[in-house]
Structure to design on (176 residues):
């Protein structure tokens, strides 16, 4: 598809408008992603790098051939890998990576499949790490009318397309 000057394009954006919080200068941040959830972390990592920080990434996939854009992550930060079959990095899930025992982080930014994000939120809570997740709820209308992206929070139900997509784990009812 290509567009020419004067062509019209219909877009619905920005959805939510609530992104990840940038860490303070003295905070170490870990960006954890799985599957297509690594895409927003690549963007966030580039912004961190642009601001002078060196982000640390923990990326997970079922196998090495399912890791997305690994080289692009390595170009901007430190990268650790887990694969379920052990074909790259450590074998297992991101929550099982030895990085959590070796390093200390004050903040985490997470995006990926919901079960992965919930498990990482539990690890963050256990280690006392401030954690935000970028939810991938289905968003149909983008204006909060269809209610297909509703998420339960401590302040009631919210539409991810309007109130997110990023939430602090303490706002979500996952760990309660």
């Amino acid at each position: 598809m290509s567009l020419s000057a004067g062509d019209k394009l219909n877009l619905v954006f920005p959805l939510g408008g609530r992104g990840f919080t940038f860490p303070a200068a003295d905070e170490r941040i870990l960006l954890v992603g799985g599957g297509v959830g690594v895409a927003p972390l690549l963007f966030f990592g580039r912004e961190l790098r642009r601001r002078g920080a060196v982000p640390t990434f923990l990326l997970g996939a079922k196998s090495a051939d399912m890791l997305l854009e690994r080289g692009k992550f390595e170009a901007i930060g430190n990268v650790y890998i887990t694969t379920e079959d052990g074909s790259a990095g450590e074998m297992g899930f991101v929550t099982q990576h030895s990085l959590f025992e070796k390093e200390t982080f004050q903040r985490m930014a997470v995006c990926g499949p919901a079960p992965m994000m919930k498990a990482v939120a539990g690890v963050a809570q256990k280690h006392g790490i401030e954690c935000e997740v970028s939810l991938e709820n289905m968003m149909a209308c983008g204006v909060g009318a269809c209610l297909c992206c509703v998420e339960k929070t401590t302040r009631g139900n919210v539409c991810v397309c309007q109130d997110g997509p990023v939430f602090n784990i303490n706002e979500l009812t996952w760990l309660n």
